[in-house]
Amino acid sequence: MFCEQCEQTASGQGCHQWGACGKSPEVNAVQDLLVYCLRGIAPVALKAKELGILTHEVDVFTCESLFSTMTNVNFNKKRFGEYIQHAIQLRENLKAEVAKHEASVEWSEVSCYEPDYTESLAQQGQDIALKFITQSESDVDIFSLKLTVLYGVKGLASYSFHAQELGQEDDRIYQFCYEALAALDQNNLSLEDWVNLALKVGEINYLAMELLDAGHTQTYGHPTPTVVPLNPKLGKAILVSGHDIKQLEAILKQTENTGITVYTHGELLPAHGYPLLKQKYPHLYGHYGTAWQNQTKDFAKFPGAIIVTTNCLMPTQETYEDKLFTIGPVGYPEISYLPDIEDNTPNYTLAIQKALALPGFTEEKEPRQVTVGFARNSVLNVADQVISAVKEGKIRHLFLVGGCDGAKPDRNYYTEFVEKVPKDCIVLTLACGKFRFFDKQLGEIGNLPRLMDVGQCNDAYSAIQIALGLAQAFEMDVNELPLSMILSWYEQKAVAVLLSLLYLGIKDIRLGPTIPAFLSANVLNLLSEKYNLQPITTPDQDLAACLG
């Protein structure tokens, strides 16, 4: 196998024997085959759009199936086989529609690919991956940028998937996804072309994040500072993990008047800040556990049913497999999967029945809590206080410390960094990286908390708006603000967000815990020269550099 799309790749160079995420070579190969089939859909969909043929079903499928190939989303080889069959069917249906308008269209080799279902799909995927690598190995920098574009588009597809669930779509996103996928089969693009395409991923991803933000805020209201209990209450329980707030609401609806308390896990913690969600569903009570990589411990201890809505899913363990359910693009062999029944919403009856059959929480624990809800409206509403505090010398600097968490011990850097941030500085945070320090009591500056949780990785748009809003209020360029970005990455959403930041011209980002293995030395140098993108070093050194 060959996979280097996430941060935890073996020796930082890529996984070749078995995925560090737990993905088998066979699953990796069928994922590669699925992506190849989506590359085959791309030119057909582009032609169909040119002719005015409706492609919406194909558009939505492309984003969901790309999402399923992201790190720690789906480990089920059978499901990928189903995705592949559906992809070929949609492609051929679209070809037939195109033929009604233009009978003489010549398709590329990849758009004519037909899997042999009598042979191993994994072997076919391995052959295709090897061919892709061989065709690209003559120029390592272009290959690096091809992978950057592909991984960025996977992240873009995931944001688009969530936005579409909430009724927010823009055909420019689907159009670009096809253009980027089709470009992977072109060998006449220059290095500059690929750099521009990578930045275009960032531009379109920024649009997708804006749509997702609109979907959340128009449906559930703008987040407000909200205290969230970390200690459970007595009674039956369901734990909801992942990122999908629409599905969290569906679970809350279906558990009304059942006596079940619903807890969030991982990236769903910020859901408690949405006023229309918490007001309507009082049985949405608290948060349980921390980041995704700790779920084997968290899930084993949780005394109720568990539903994983999106990434990140760890390889499961016998201690909790019988109470675990997955939905949407998420899957694992032999784990109960709840398919959609209406409006992209599963019937959660099986999970509810499991929760009622399990003991739930039988002992009370000492109260603990954290505060969430410092999204763009909450922060920008006090922008005048921030500006005054900066001008008066009460606030020296702001740090955005956020991104993905992971299991590597060198991620302790982020905990130590936040602990060492001087008391006259504020820390904004988002995504699951915050779980290394989210419950630390950093105190306040005036009436402003020194630690503000902006939200999920899906709320990166909100964090960007805070930076742009403060720049406007200060009447200066965003790169002149007393603000430093210290980011951690793990999977492909983070790649897409980084490309959005670069598209916006944001400089001096510190990235860790390691630089992506798919970035060649020359590409990294190019990004360093143009944007001063640099790896983290030590907390003391980076703090000193940021504070001058």
TrEMBL record:
Keywords: 4Fe-4S, Cytoplasm, Iron, Iron-sulfur, Metal-binding, Oxidoreductase. Pfam families: Prismane (PF03063). One of its GO terms (molecular function) is hydroxylamine reductase activity. CDD domains: HCP. [4Fe-4S] cluster binds at residues 3, 6, 15, 21. Its EC number is 1.7.99.1. GO terms for biological process: response to hydrogen peroxide. Hybrid [4Fe-2O-2S] cluster binds at residues 243, 267, 312, 404, 432, 457, 491, 493. Its cofactor is hybrid [4Fe-2O-2S] cluster; [4Fe-4S] cluster. Belongs to the HCP family. This is Hydroxylamine reductase. The gene is hcp.
